[in-house]
Amino acid sequence: MECMQRRDPPPEDGQASVDDSTAESGQRLLDAPAQRWLESVPGTVYVTGPNWWLGDLHFLSESIVELGQRPADDYRDQPALWLRQMATADRQQALDTLQRAETEGESRLRLVYTLERDGDVPCRIEDQITLTRDEQGGVLTLTGVLGVMPQEEAAPEQTCQAMLRHCGDLIIALDEELDCLGVLGNAVDTLGMQPDQLRARSLFSLMAPEDGARVQRTLLEQAGEARPVLLEVRLEHRDGSYRWFEIHFSPYADITSLAAMPGWVAVARNITERRHQSLNWDAYTATDELTSALNQSAFMGLLRHALAFGESSARLSMIVFDVDCLDDINRSWGRDGGDLVLTCIGELCRATLRERFSFGRLEDDTFAILLSGKSLQETARVAERLRERFAATRVEFHGHWLTFSVSLGVAERRVEETAEGFLARAGEGVREAKRHGRDRVHQAP
């Protein structure tokens, strides 16, 4: 029998130097029925030539993707990938054990090694190998059945990692400057980064700029009292987008053996989906059901924001209007008739106004429209266009035609004017329009 040469681990940055035709010819050693039978065997089965995973792979079950987290075709094209995924110490020991078994004429052996997978918890593999020999004792093929080691044999830290990966949380050890000292959990799915890429990086560098100052201020306030802090923070994903996290910071005087300085243990939970659902619900509850206008609270918030953060020289104008005699419509046609008129109000505003505007419902029959870039006179012309459209509209209700009109007041923002003062002046224009006969536009003083 030809002596078997000592095998060294495959180079980390290249494929094993084996002719590509070897694997292809090996595939032809097993006919289709044999391959189908091997595919049906429980576990993950592979068949190689004497060189094991160094290049002559004859058959491989598709289920290897569950162990190596790579498709079977990757291993068929580059069999040495499996060896390169083994922990370095286990790889050399496995090769030595296999060489000794082949040399000493053994027909069966069991290998146990750790498989390292990108962005995932390392997996402890049990590899049951059967060696087929020729009449002279030379090795023809190796048939292996791969499986995960029973849970009780897994290391405690592997079990902890698996639990963290399942729940999706991250546990991060931080020094007092919020530099990451250690990371547990599925950082790849959470932030698109390997744990090693997070270590020695500041958590502040991942935060949205406006969140970083708030977090720093809060932690400084709480550090002296050694109290935990719960904050909602945006962290940057590797793809450049921000994800929302609920982070529980717990002070710890000695986080790890790496740091004797005060610091924090942070438990970060991805709440992006929950946050989006909350924002959608806020938008829904801020909108009036009949007219699709912002409710009073939401409109006033928008108005205050526009006055506080807009340029002082930018023009803002407002139209406030009441539906004339809505109570009479409700008495004559019932609340359904009045609601139908209110529904038409929202539709007509959107159909008539060509300008960009914000639309709010302040009271049962009172509405406001906020415009930007318009003078008082231009706003008055927009209001007149609305008035004419409302007055010309007839609403069909159970075979009857309902008509209605509106009284409108217009105002342009004054320097240093509050949101309440601005709105009150436009409202005074409505009252003047009503005093002068309704169904008209009046400019505020």
TrEMBL record:
In which organism is this protein found?
A: Salinicola rhizosphaerae
The residue ranges of the GGDEF domain are 314-445
Name of the protein in question:
diguanylate cyclase
User: Which EC numbers does the record give?
Assistant: 2.7.7.65
Q: Which portions of the chain have biased composition (kind: Basic and acidic residues)?
A: 1-10
Give start and end of each PAC domain: 229-283
| Region (Disordered) location | 1-26
Q: Name one Pfam family in it.
A: GGDEF
